[in-house]
Design brief:
Rossmann fold, 9 strands, three-stranded antiparallel sheet, 8 helices, alpha/beta, six-stranded mixed sheet
Length: about 260
Amino acid sequence: MHSTVIKAKNLSLTFQTNDGPVHALKDVSLDIGAGEFVSFIGPSGCGKTTFLRVIAALEEPTSGTICVNGMTPDEARRARAYGYVFQAAGLYPWRTIGGNVKLPLEIMGFSKAEQEERVRKVLELVDLAGFEKKYPWQLSGGMQQRASIARALAFDADILLMDEPFGALDEIVRDHLNEQLLHLWAETEKTIAFVTHSIPEAVYLSTKIVVMSPRPGRIADVIDSPLPRERPLDIRDTPEFLEVAHRVREGLRAGHSYD
């Protein structure tokens, strides 16, 4: 059994707004093991991103507990336990791709030689070797997103938090990046928490799929994937794949995602 890397117990989070309280998460309990690929799927506003932000110490839960690598999220943030990939690539236009990837390393005070070596290594990992000197505007959306993943990988944290990183990309590019992400995961053995709106993406990528219900965000179902770790794209046409996709769809429906 994998050791537990992220452990949430009875986690709730309520935002106070001018229109009254918004219950973003309610009684969420979940264990994520080392090396797992866990997708969070559910309707808009169901707390998927909020949960990711709680792991990253960007939001404070109202009640319940959460541990990241046996620490509080804030301690884990200071210990640089995770890299975070946002929906938009968020690259600085005035910095080259190499410069963007290097940014966290500069902040963390790595030596120049170490910075160069790490940038080279992660750009190779995401298939962007030779693009260090290019600027973000010279790259396609898919390439920019890969650069943003490289930046999150640069300081070699064990955990990768990904908030719908491919949501804005067209399907062909998205398929390609899904394949690449699986290769990357196999190679780096990171623990990945991944937010998505896409059922095929969730089923294709994950070892575990967490289906969430609309506000207040609760866990409607947790599905352990029966699919092998080696997954060519055409696995999506197999009965096993379609069966998992069907269960995700049922979970979303049961969580009445169509209020």
